[in-house]
Amino acid sequence: MNSRLVITGMSILSPMGENIDGFWNNLINGVSGIKDITLFDVSKYKSKKAGEISDFDAKEILGKKGIRHIDRTSLLASSAAKLVMGDAKITHETYTEDDLGIVIGSTYGSIDSISSFDLEALKEGPNFVNPMDFPNTVLNAPASRASIFCKATGLNSTISTGVTSGLDAIIYASDFLSLGRVKAVLAGGVHGLTSDIFWGAYRSGILSGSKDDAIEISAPFDKRRNGFIIGEAAALLVIERLEDALKRNAKIYAEIKGYRCTFNPKKIYHDNFDTEEGVRCISLAMKDAELNIDDISYVSACANSSVTGDKMETKVIKDYFGNYAQKVPISAIKSMTGECLDASGAMQCVASIMAINNGVIPPTINYQERDDECDLDYVSNKSRKLDVKNVLINAFSDTGNISSIIISKYS
């Protein structure tokens, strides 16, 4: 990395809370945000739970004007963008519109709108479809809506790489800042809970509780795990070059030390147990950060309670860290939030930054039965005090994308 990049703002809308303090307090106290789904009817399904944001009201954040025809995912993204600018104390007196950019990870954000739009056209005919709903159907809608609300014209990009989207958005934004193209970027991910994604995951058999008499639980690394529980969230960071942040006397939460994304072409959904690319990705990120293995204080795991995925991530950590794998604490916040897909990596970043600033590691809850193939320190069920200096954050997509970021205490 050519420039030192720092994080000067954070926002989150999540099942655990709709502000940073609420999210963090629930996280370190092991309070689950997973509950019965209320957004749509799941009476026909065995799986009935999700990490749902219960009290989200976009009007309280964005105002009433211009939001009537915007879908849930774009409202979450736009709300998070407004909140993160407030947290970073950025106004257009601080930076011009051309100095600001937005990069949002979103793979599934438009699916519900596409489905509803097409269904209406097929049932009633194309002349009866509301043209105001069409902008919701494009993949870049969440990022574009957020840019419009925040008047950010320097950069607008959508990253669509599945579960790694949130981390990849942060990586893309960091590269763009290193080139000196803009002064600040709002970067992260968003995923709104919809019936289409729930149904697709259920039919694929990857949701917890969807098979036979399996218990419906989010229990990463636990022997009882049998699939993930889906969630929704929006999480954004403000990233700036250090010199620009210092010039405006910004509060600096943490520093982005290094990152890398790779791709495993052999990975086809859950069938391939190849850890080589995961190890390579972490190795390249660590090289970028110029850190040694024992410099990592804590690993924020991608683990989401899938049978193969959690086992694979454990092996990746073992293969990269060697003997140190038994010493470094690892936890999976998805045990409390559910799998928030495009937003999950950015949400892990927020949790990791809070761990750095508060000296506490969040737990992996619901850990009761040991799996012999998942035998590391998962900070089970109770948060832990620790001087956290460098955090490795991982994201592994079912379709081969792999991303790692190292976030460090600023000094």
TrEMBL record:
One of its GO terms (cellular component) is cytosol. Residues 2-409 form the Ketosynthase family 3 (KS3) domain. One of its GO terms (molecular function) is 3-oxoacyl-[acyl-carrier-protein] synthase activity. Keywords: Transferase. It holds the Pfam family ketoacyl-synt. One of its GO terms (biological process) is fatty acid biosynthetic process. This is 3-oxoacyl-(Acyl-carrier-protein) synthase.
